Amino acid sequence: MSPSRQYFYGLGKRKTAIARTKLFPKGSGEVTVNGQKIGKYFTGKDSENAMAPLAIAEKTKEFDIEVQVQGGGKSAQSDAIRLGVSRALILSDPDLRLELKRAGFLHRDPRIKERKKPGLKRARRAPQWQKR
After folding, report:
1. Does residue 121 belong to any structural domain of this protein?
2. Range of the domain at 20
3. Contacts of 11 (CB under 8 A, 6+ apart)
4. Is residue 117 part of a domain?
5. Per-residue burial over 33-67, b = 16 or more CB atoms within 10 Å of its CB, e = otherwise
6. Per-residue pLDDT of the chain (132 residues; tens, 9 = 90+)
7. Which of 73, 66, 31 shows the shortest CA–CA distance to 48?
8. In a domain, 31, yes or no
9. H or E stretch covering 102
């Protein structure tokens, strides 16, 4: 993709994964994640999950998508991409907001790893109690 082309940008986050998403209009439906085709980068349902907003909006072949994602695992990255694509779609067509909101794609999942507390083994796991 040439950097001079116009695009719609969306940022998505989930746990520690961050996805920077660019939607290029008048595309052929090509999706690249970190320079690789999405089918090669994700296995199983993660690629379908990431592209679900396009399926709901029925715009799978209208955009070329370029994603830079870092951190987290594959599942969290997939969810971060889904949020980024949803936000970029809204910038391209504000009428899609209601559909995407109903599907739950505009909600940033706030659950992250809880910090370890002093005196405990993990966030909530207490040391094993010993009688003697």
Report:
1. no
2. 8-103
3. 18, 19, 20, 21, 84, 87
4. no
5. beeeebeebbeeebbeebbbbbebbebeebbbbbb
6. 555 789 999 999 999 999 999 999 988 889 999 999 999 999 889 999 999 999 999 888 899 999 999 999 999 999 999 999 999 999 999 999 999 999 999 999 999 999 999 999 999 999 999 998
7. 31
8. yes
9. helix 97-103
Of the candidates 25, 30, 108, the one whose C-alpha atom is nearest the C-alpha of residue 67 is: 30
Q: What does the block give as tokens for 46?
A: 């993660």
Q: State the total domains in the chain.
A: 1
Is there a domain that residue 93 lies in? Answer: yes
CB 19 within 8 A of CB 13: yes
**What integer pLDDT is reported at residue 2 of this predicted model?**
52
Which CATH number fits the domain that encloses residue 26? 3.30.230.10
Token pair 């595309």 is found at 27
What's the pTM value of the predicted model, to 2 decimals? 0.89
What is the DSSP-derived secondary structure letter of residue 7?
-
